[in-house]
Specification:
By secondary structure, the chain is mainly α. About 55% of the residues lie in helices and about 0% in strands. The protein folds into two domains: about 15-190, Rhomboid-like (Rhomboid-like fold), CATH 1.20.1540; about 195-229, no CATH class.
C-alpha cells in the first residue's frame, strides 16, 4: 500500500532561473529605454486603436520608471516560481494565454491612455494560483492559495479606480484572465498522491479479501469453519 512515487512537485533549476532571468530582462529593457531614449511607452496597450494592439504582447515588458518596476519585481519573481513549481506542466500555457487574454481585455475596456507594466501579469498569477488551489481541492495547493492571499490579498483594492495614474483596468483584466484559466485547466491540475488500493486498476490480494468495503475484518466463512475443525 505504498504511495505513488510520481509527483508533479519536483524542484528543478529552471524553477528559480526562469523567474530570475525574466525579472532581469525587465530591468535591462528599462535601462535601455532610459539610456537611449527609446520611448518604449509608445508600445503599450492603447485601447481600441490599431497601433495599440502591439501592447497586448509588449506592455508587460515596459515600465514607466524604476519605482514602477521595483514594485512589480519581487511579486513577479515569487509568483513565477510558484507557477513553475506547482503548475509546471501548464505554466507556459498560463503565461502565454494569460498575456493574450488580459492584454485584449485591457485593450477593450481601458481608458484612452498607454497601459504598461507587468502588474497585469502579477494579478494574473495571483488569481490563477488562488483559484486553482480552490478548484483542485488538494491540500498543498489550497495552502499555496492561502499564502498568496496572505501576501497579496491587499492587491484586490487596485482593481478599482483608486489611483488616477494606475491602470486598474490592466489589473482587473489580469485577475479575470487568471480566474478564467484556472477554470479551464481545473481538470488537469495536480492531484493528491494515491495509495495503490485507490487506483481503479488495483487488484485485491488474499489479505485484502479479509476486509469488507467498510474496512471491517470479515474473513470468508469457509476459513472460519476450517480453523474450527
Amino acid at each position: 500500500m505504498s504511495l505513488e512515487k510520481d509527483t508533479p512537485f519536483n524542484f528543478k533549476l529552471s524553477i528559480l532561473a526562469i523567474p530570475l532571468y525574466a525579472v532581469l530582462l525587465l530591468w535591462v529593457l528599462l535601462w535601455l529605454d532610459f539610456r537611449f531614449n527609446l520611448h518604449f511607452k509608445n508600445y503599450g496597450v492603447y485601447p481600441r486603436t490599431a497601433h495599440g494592439l502591439w501592447g497586448i504582447i509588449a506592455s508587460p515588458f515596459i515600465h514607466k520608471n524604476v519605482s514602477h518596476l521595483a514594485h512589480n519585481s519581487l511579486p513577479l519573481f515569487v509568483l513565477l516560481m510558484a507557477l513553475f513549481y506547482f503548475y509546471n506542466r501548464i505554466s507556459y500555457k498560463i503565461l502565454i494565454y494569460g498575456v493574450l487574454i488580459s492584454g485584449t481585455l485591457t485593450w477593450i475596456i481601458a481608458r484612452p491612455a498607454y497601459h504598461i507594466g507587468a502588474s497585469g501579469i502579477v494579478y494574473l498569477l495571483v488569481s490563477f494560483i488562488f483559484f486553482s488551489g480552490i478548484f483542485s481541492k488538494y491540500y498543498r495547493l489550497i495552502a499555496v492559495s492561502l499564502i498568496v492571499v496572505f501576501l497579496y490579498g491587499s492587491l484586490v483594492w487596485y482593481m478599482f479606480p483608486v489611483q488616477e495614474e494606475m491602470s486598474w483596468e490592466g489589473h482587473l483584466s489580469g485577475f479575470i484572465a487568471g480566474l478564467l484559466l484556472a477554470f479551464i485547466y481545473r481538470k488537469v491540475l495536480p492531484e493528491p498522491e494515491k495509495y495503490d488500493w485507490e487506483h481503479d486498476t488495483y487488484q485485491e490480494d488474499e489479505f485484502d479479501a479479509l476486509f469488507d468495503d467498510d474496512g471491517n475484518f470479515n474473513p470468508p466463512q469457509e476459513d472460519i469453519k476450517d480453523k474450527s475443525l
